[in-house]
Amino acid sequence: MRARRVAPVHTARPAPTAGRALAMMAGMDASNDHSHTDYAAFFEGLDVPCRTVEHTPLFTVQDGIDHGVAELMGVAPEHLVKNLLLRDTHGDLYLVVAFGDPRLDLKGLARALGSTRLSFAPAETMHESLGADPGCASMLGLLHNPHAQSIHLVIDEAVAGVQGDIGFAAGGNTRTVLFPAAALPTVAKALCPRNGPRVLALPAIR
Predict the structure, then answer these.
(1) DSSP state, 181?
(2) Which H, E and C letters describe 110-165, residue by residue?
């Protein structure tokens, strides 16, 4: 099967349809930066169509709302996605992909994962494992990352069920790669071939 062509980089403009989810938390430094060609080749190899959008620097999901990027991209604010790096008491790492609005119940998540108590990974751990600063992480930081196989990728089933495109910050906090949410399991598996992603309903604090 011939791989689909990857759309070129372009400046964010109103999307033709809503329901596209963006992961707005990136901020990877040069040690874990990849060119647009790297991402294009990765998705082309999976036969997954994607496009790259450049936008104002974003550090949190709220930034995506406050700076009008969600509206500019035609994304419902509740569909913006966060990426959180957590660590249990044994030192095991979990990269959690979830919608930005709900506050995760870390105790409930630990029970669901069968892990010990979870907390946010310290700055040095995040930098070593993802090449990212605190509060700035992305699933695509696992691409060509020697630490990827030691990180457990956990995805909220609600995110996996998004209709339309889903996006993850790529190589910094001014660029997002979007692809069909239906391809999320395929992309996640390619990023973590040994552990594979775990897709489950994440508990939230109401």
Answers:
(1) G
(2) HHHHCCCCEEECCHHHHHHHHCECCCCCCHHHHCCCCCHHHEEEEEEHHHHCCCCE
Query: With helix as H, strand as E and coil as C, how does 18-68 read?
Result: CCCEEECCCCECHHHCCCHHHHHHHHHHCCCCCEEEECCCCCCHHHHHHCC
For 84, phi then psi, to 5°, come to -120, 130
pLDDT at position 109 over 60: yes
Copy the structure tokens of residue 187: 């992309």
Percent of the chain with pLDDT over 70: 78
Q: How far is CA 42 from the centre of its chain?
A: 15
* pLDDT per residue as tens digits for the range 156-203: 999 988 887 887 888 778 888 888 888 999 999 999 877 789 999 999
Beta carbons of 102 and 61 less than 8 angstroms apart? no
CB 130 within 8 A of CB 122: no
- CA 29, 30, 35, 40 torsion: positive or negative? negative
Q: How far is CA 188 from CA 93, 105, 141, in A?
A: 16, 23, 11
pTM (2 d.p.): 0.80
Task: For residue 30, name the pLDDT band (cuts at 50, 70, 90).
Answer: very low
Which amino acid makes up residue 72?
L
